[in-house]
Amino acid sequence: MAYVQIEADERMEEGPERLQFQSFLSTDARAANQESNTGRGYFSDRPKSSGFWQLEYYQPYFDVDTKLVLKRCYTTLLPHSPNYLSAHLTPSADLYGPFWTLTTLIFCLFLSSSLASSISAWLSDPGNTSGAILEYDFGLLSTAVGLVYSYGIGVPVLLWLALRYLGVGEWSVIEAVSVWGYGQFVWIPVALLNINPFPIARWVLTGIAFVVSGWFLVANVYPVLATADAKPVRLVIILLAALHVAVAFCFQILFFGYYPLGEVGPKDPAQPIETAL
Amino acid sequence: MQRLDQEHHEATTPLTSTSQFIEADDDDLDEEAIPSFTHPGLVPSPHSPGQDKGKARAPEQLASAGSAAVSGNIGTPVNGAGAPQPNRRSVGGVQVETRYTGTDTLDEPIATTIGRDLLSIYTKLIQVLYPPRNNGSRDLLRDWDLWGPLILCLMLGILLSVNAPASQSLSVFTSVVVIIALGSLVVTVQAKLLGGRVSFFQGLCALGYCIAPLNIAALVSTFVHLIYVRVPVALASWAWCVWASVNFLDGTKIEQQRILLAVYPLLLFYFVLAWMIIIQ
Q1: Which stretches of sequence are listed as region Disordered (chain B) (predicted)?
Q2: Is the pLDDT of residue A150 over 90?
Q3: Which residues is B98 bridged to in the sheet?
């Protein structure tokens, strides 16, 4: 009786990339594209397999077009939209949106804080009677880069590692980064609106942005945490919420509370904190 | 005569000291596929397969130089013998690119060498900043260099840090150099990831040269401190940068539905620099 020896441990050797495909949601762009074999037809003439050190390996994660990216961005603002939870995942998560959302956010924080400081300086002292020279603190730019990238990329990667360590959920790291990146989209218009010189309005706008982006994160992350067998894993959401509060406060105090020469309108409630810093 | 001399050298020993060795880009397929380069005279002819490409190409250029004026696909002739074309060959498994400058560079005075390099930077600058001049041909850019972008980047950094208050001039210089270096890197990688057919260093080179208008704006704002002058000048030079670099991206054959995705990072990248000029 003849039999053919088969590789019993084939699944074990396929590595984590393939194991994640068990979610059957086809959220992994690489797997999805290899299944359909064409993607959206943009890379039809490219070799299909390449190592992770080659640029071609990452091309499936950038297989988006303008309309799709814009749609994914504004869907994060609309909690009642039917595809609020999965808009950034269909047909597959991308990395273009998250990266450029975060980069635009950094730029908007830089633009807003520098413009706001000069406007509020001009409003508080129209004729520049004191003869003060406005100096913009360029250190804020590098602070913004560090803060935004570490929150928008570092936190989801760490969370993904932690969840893998705990063995929770079928969640790809691309998906995690995508949730965080698109989730911070609301800060871009808010940063631009926060050029207004009224501290109360800035606090309200920051609060709105905090709620919108926080709700998007919770709505997307909690279902993943809830799949864990151990109930305490769900408490991670509290940690994430605390981080989000901290980041919102950092934005407000570092970038939207920038008064070199005095202020206008009602008093800023954060003034004691800022002077303490 | 110099050329014939060089030919002789190359025929006996392929690796002469007069040819510079540059590690080739890993995506030579892309460059060959760019339609603007497929002049019939430049398509490798059947009698020069693979290894003998370097030797066979120079006479071919001489032959096709006459038809260059008709087709307009070959860049501005530098020495009357066509633009210097990099040659590819593999030495010991490593693909290298030899660049033939058109003259014997071994025993020329150093002033001539530097002069020729500056001239090449100048020609590329003109080509990048005013693309219609060469009917959109990017032949000169195949012979990319990073000296031009480096000079422009340092110039911008110095101009801005001179303007900045003394306590911040160092951090301004640092951030300008870092933004330009990382920004052009990211934007080029971005264009490749979106499926643009562009060689990596060629992209870096073109985007680096596109910074030049911002240098002009920074120079103007060094001497003119009126906000009514600086803002329009900076915005105009920003628009110029974007126009020049979009012209470059046009040749990379990115699909229409996603051209905006490739242009947006450029807008952002140059606007950060323009904004730094404005708020000085």
Answers
A1: 1-91
A2: yes
A3: B21, B87
Higher pLDDT, B34 or A220: A220
Show which of residues 28-47 on chain B sit within 8 Å of chain A, judged by CB atoms: none
Res B126 pLDDT > 60: yes
Residues in chain A closer than 8 A to B275 (CB atoms): 110-111, 114
pLDDT of residue B39: 45
State whether A113 and A161 are in the same domain: yes
ipTM score of complex: 0.71
Contact B255 A64 (CB under 8 A): no
Rg (CA), chain A: 23
- Among B108, B132, B152, the domain boundary falls at B108
Residue A26 has pLDDT above 50, yes or no: no
Interface test with B, best of A40, A66, A101, A133 (most B CBs within 10 A): A66
What confidence tens digit (pLDDT) does each residue in A105-147 have? 999 998 888 887 777 777 776 665 555 556 667 778 888 899 9
Q: Which domain holds residue B97?
A: 2-108
Are residues B149 and B91 part of one domain?
Answer: no
Could you tell me the two tokens for A60?
């499936």
3-state secondary structure A166-227: HCCCCCCHHHHHHHHHHHHHHHHHHHHHCCCCCHHHHHHHHHHHHHHHHHHHHHHHHHHHHC
Q: Number of folded domains in chain A?
A: 2
Contacts of B257 in chain A (CB under 8 A): 65-67
- Map residue B39 onto helix, strand or coil: coil
- The pair of structure tokens assigned to B271 is 């606007």
Q: Are residues B140 and B230 in the same domain?
A: yes
Helix/strand/coil for B89: strand
Provide the chain B residues 86-105 that lie in CB contact (below 8 A) with chain A: none
Say if residue A224's pLDDT is above 60.
Answer: yes
Q: Which domain holds residue A118?
A: 96-276
The pLDDT score that the predictor gives to residue A32 is 52
CA of A140 vs chain B CAs: smallest distance (Å): 11
pLDDT tens digits for A84-110?
A: 776 666 667 788 888 999 999 999 998
Task: Say yes or no: A64 contacts chain B, CB-CB below 8 A.
Answer: yes
pLDDT, residue B192, reads: 82
Give the C-alpha separation, B198 to B184, whole Å: 14
Cβ–Cβ below 8 Å for A65 and B264: no
Whether residue B265 and residue A138 make contact (CB cut-off 8 A), yes or no, is no
Q: How far apart are CA A256 and CA A206, in angstroms?
A: 9
Mutate to test the interface with A, among B193, B269, B273 (most CBs of A within 10 A): B193
**Interface contacts (A, B; CB < 8 Å):** 63
* Record: contact A62-B194, CB cut-off 8 A: yes
